[in-house]
Specification:
Length: 214
């Protein structure tokens, strides 16, 4: 009887350990950082191209006005987000300047803005690019980072890398390159390294100081 009880306890313990292991595995798969670089063919002047950041690529959207399957829309230099006047999602954007992309380890608190009928949030201010004018007529990305709340409420940091198929020779316009880091667990963290806590706190403090000085 004693041997039976030991065997029974061993089996129960093994099952519990297995369940806990599975739970941890599922959590690890779900809570993940997605660091991607993506080039979007936005050369069509009539049609929008839609991107899902979690899937890491272009998605086929039949009705952007009712779909939550896209986060960003591209058409030449125009960029929209799935929120506000542009879509049914929760997308909002906060522009962060004076910080390097790599140094932003957490989405800061602030006034996130969605698209309106008058202007897309990414076009506010100087927008994401500078037009050089003649003689080159180049489109060059501005040095700023966009903190995006996606259509479904996750957070990402994003920057524009270029507007050309070949950004060195400036050939093939309408091909927008972006780099982004997406946190898919709904938190604001852009790092899984616990030693980065100090750096995150520094960003939040500095961001508060910037807001107060404006």
């Amino acid at each position: 009887m004693k041997s039976f009880m030991c065997l029974h306890n061993l089996i129960i313990g093994t099952i519990i350990l297995f369940v806990v292991t599975i739970s941890i595995t599922v959590l690890t798969v779900y809570a993940d950082l997605h660091h991607n670089t993506l080039t979007v063919d936005a050369t069509d002047r009539e049609s929008w191209v839609y991107v899902n950041l979690l899937e890491g690529g272009i998605v086929d959207i039949k009705d952007a006005a009712t779909s939550l399957e896209w986060d960003l829309g591209f058409q030449r230099t125009a960029v929209i987000t799935n929120g506000g006047n542009s879509g049914p999602g929760d997308a909002e954007v906060l522009v962060v300047e004076d910080f390097d992309f790599e140094d932003i380890l957490e989405a800061p608190e602030g006034e996130y803005i969605s698209d309106t009928e008058q202007i897309a949030t990414i076009a506010r201010g100087d927008g994401w690019y500078t037009y050089t004018g003649p003689p080159n007529h180049w489109i060059l990305p501005n040095a700023r980072v966009y903190i995006l709340r996606t259509a479904i409420g996750d957070y990402a940091k994003l920057r524009f890398m270029g507007y050309y198929e070949n950004n060195e020779t400036k050939e093939g316009s309408g091909n927008i390159s972006i780099e982004y880091v997406l946190q898919d667990d709904g938190t604001r963290n852009f790092t899984s390294d616990p030693t980065d806590v100090v750096a995150r706190e520094k960003l939040v403090t500095t961001w508060a100081e910037i807001k107060q000085s404006r």
